[in-house]
Amino acid sequence: DAEITQSPRHKITETGRQVTLACHQTWNHNNMFWYRQDLGHGLRLIHYSYGVQDTNKGEVSDGYSVSRSNTEDLPLTLESAASSQTSVYFCASSYQGTDTQYFGPGTRLTVL
Amino acid sequence: GENVEQHPSTLSVQEGDSAVIKCTYSDSASNYFPWYKQELGKGPQLIIDIRSNVGEKKDQRIAVTLNKTAKHFSLHITETQPEDSAVYFCAATLNNAGNMLTFGGGTRLMVKP
After folding, report:
1. Confidence (pLDDT) at B107
2. CA distances from A73 to A23, A55, A79, B35 (A)
């Protein structure tokens, strides 16, 4: 079955370290998204991509970057992790031209 | 940009009762409104959605209503069951905005047996 996976599911890191969260989907979706989820804020968009080599900033993109070298993967990198980036991160994907987004299981990141 | 507010933040109901969650949005051009259910330890899953050319949509025990004039939409769950306990999120987007969703803050629904 097609699916969307995230790894790792849990990560603890230290302030200042570079961290990369992986997202992989097997639906061949053009669109991919990264959100962070914090209590009281719902889900906020970090970065998104409409296809290979395309990346765009979302509402809360400072301190994060993404790259899209193939259709299946959109890794999220925290260049220098900060305690304010402690959160649960969700990846999502959708077909081009459609609205329904399919979410991964999430990665809980703790920055000490 | 779009702003979506969701109320209440927590809701506790007795099994069998109805639950209603309300959302308001700011951009009158928004025309797609999905609702997601998030169970503990999992990612959000779409449960129902509505477009601006429709006032109400039902799917078994779940219904969504939309009032474009007032810019608000609501999720109605009838005959609640313990398995309905979860966090529910509303969202809004422009159909031509490349699928970028703006989410509400979420509602934690607890159904007491």
Report:
1. 96
2. 6, 12, 18, 26
Q: Which residues of A touch B100 (CB under 8 A)?
A: 33, 45, 48, 58
The rounded distance, in Å, linking the Cα atoms of A26 and B110 is 34
Question: Looking at residue B95, what is its pLDDT?
Answer: 62
**A62 to chain B nearest CA, in Å?**
18
Distance (Å, whole) CA B63 – CA B20? 10
- With beta carbons less than 8 A apart as the criterion, state whether B18 and B33 touch: no
Return the percentage of chain A with pLDDT > 90, whole number: 85
More confident site: A102 or B52? A102
Closest CA in chain B for residue A37: B105
Question: Closest chain A residue to B4 measured between Cα atoms?
Answer: A42
Instruction: Give the model's pLDDT for residue A109.
Output: 98
| Sign (positive or negative) of CA dihedral B64, A50, A32, A20 | negative
Q: What is the pLDDT of residue A40?
A: 74
CA distance B70 to B11: 23
The answer to whether the Cα torsion of A86, A61, A65, A96 is positive or negative is: positive
